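queue> pop job 88
queue> type: inverse folding (structure -> sequence)
queue> payload:
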């Protein structure tokens, strides 16, 4: 634990130094400087707070259904939401579901004490992989209940190595862990952690909510018309190298590309790969001119989860690099999802493959094989889409389960 605490101090110093020349680190440090002023200005000392911590935007989306269920069913509590990454904070700093949104300070004992002294927290919820040993120990000493939401564990994680003893001690301090699968429960049992319930992934509730609330997109609808549509979401160059050449050979299919990075250089690179197709950026599309194109590049954020409903086949990017992005955003609309090989850490991808709604590809040949099968066999395409949609629907209810269980524990 001492080595961990020293390591965190050096990490904080490294971030401060990096902030001199790195924009993301600079944003993080700027946000850290505002933490305590924000809390002093906004915290109601007579209120009762539930604290949710998410590393970034993806983890926030997993916790969001629970935050909103608590907001609805238990308005007597206020919500404090913290982020570690600027990519989460910058997007959700104005999130209306929380009373206060700020960064979490570095897990240094003095910072931890200062943070907790400013907020009357009753319960703390850490989402997925967030385990902060000094925070957890301090919360436990103050008698504050601690929960882990949508966590998932694998034998390869450092927690289960000889050098992960300090983290194993932290896990034993949790009052309850709501994990995604049986393998996680068994791994935790093996290190003496038995306050565990298998509930699945809260993202199913979130994507179902998004689908129910999805806005109409008339320009997209006009673009699609009566055509078959392939949608590539959160794509990276390694993904685009595979699917763009394939669909250059399928002029009867329309193509929507929503790249993960929308920098001008990347957009131009995509356009360069599409020579021969009629391409337009979404920012330039109107109800009139979009009828004349067969490829649409989404050059803005925030629309992808609604756009998927206009597709017939989806491709989820990241599987040849950082790891696949959110497959459930597409699967919820009853369309099959294709993704690259870096998917082992994603339980939903494994389950979708098992049920016939998700498909792993490893190269251009395997992508062509599955797409050609979908194109030539509409019944196969429909069955795959039905399997994907059913998986999401069958996974709903996790958030309500957690909320009810937490407050049943309070009553007991």
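queue> result:
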């Amino acid at each position: 634990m001492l080595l961990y605490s020293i390591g965190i101090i050096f990490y904080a110093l490294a971030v401060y130094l990096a902030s001199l020349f790195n924009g993301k680190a600079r944003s993080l440090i700027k946000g850290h400087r505002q933490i305590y002023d924000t809390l002093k200005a906004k915290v109601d000392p007579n209120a009762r707070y539930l604290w949710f911590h998410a590393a970034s935007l993806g983890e926030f989306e997993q916790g969001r259904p629970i935050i909103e269920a608590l907001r609805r069913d238990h308005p007597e509590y206020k919500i404090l939401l913290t982020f570690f990454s600027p990519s989460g904070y910058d997007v959700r700093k104005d999130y209306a579901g929380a009373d206060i949104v700020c960064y979490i300070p570095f897990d240094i004992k003095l910072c931890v004490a200062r943070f907790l002294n400013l907020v009357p927290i009753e319960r703390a919820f850490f989402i997925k992989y967030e385990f902060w040993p000094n925070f957890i120990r301090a919360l436990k000493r103050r008698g504050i209940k601690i929960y882990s939401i949508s966590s998932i564990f694998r034998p390869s994680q450092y927690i289960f190595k000889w050098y992960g003893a300090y983290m194993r001690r932290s896990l034993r301090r949790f009052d309850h862990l709501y994990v995604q699968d049986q393998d996680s429960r068994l791994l935790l049992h093996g290190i003496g952690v038995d306050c565990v319930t298998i509930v699945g992934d809260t993202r199913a509730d979130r994507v179902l909510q998004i689908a129910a609330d999805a806005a109409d997109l008339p320009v997209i609808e006009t673009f699609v018309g009566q055509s078959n549509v392939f949608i590539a979401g959160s794509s990276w160059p390694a993904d685009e190298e595979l699917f763009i050449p394939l669909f250059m050979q399928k002029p009867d299919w329309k193509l929507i590309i929503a790249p993960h990075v929308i920098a001008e250089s990347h957009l131009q690179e995509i356009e360069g790969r599409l020579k021969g197709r009629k391409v337009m950026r979404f920012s330039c599309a109107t109800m009139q001119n979009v009828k004349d194109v067969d490829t649409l590049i989404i050059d803005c954020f925030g629309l992808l989860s609604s756009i998927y409903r206009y597709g017939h086949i989806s491709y989820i990017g990241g599987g040849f690099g950082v790891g696949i992005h959110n497959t459930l955003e597409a699967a919820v609309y009853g369309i099959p999802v294709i993704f690259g090989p870096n998917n082992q850490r994603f339980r939903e991808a494994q389950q979708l493959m098992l049920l016939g709604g998700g498909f792993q590809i490893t190269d251009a040949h395997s992508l062509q094989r599955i797409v050609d099968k979908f194109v030539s066999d509409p019944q196969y395409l429909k069955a795959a889409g039905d399997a994907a949609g059913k998986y999401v629907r069958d996974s709903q209810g996790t958030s309500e389960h957690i909320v009810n269980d937490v407050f049943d524990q309070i009553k007991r």
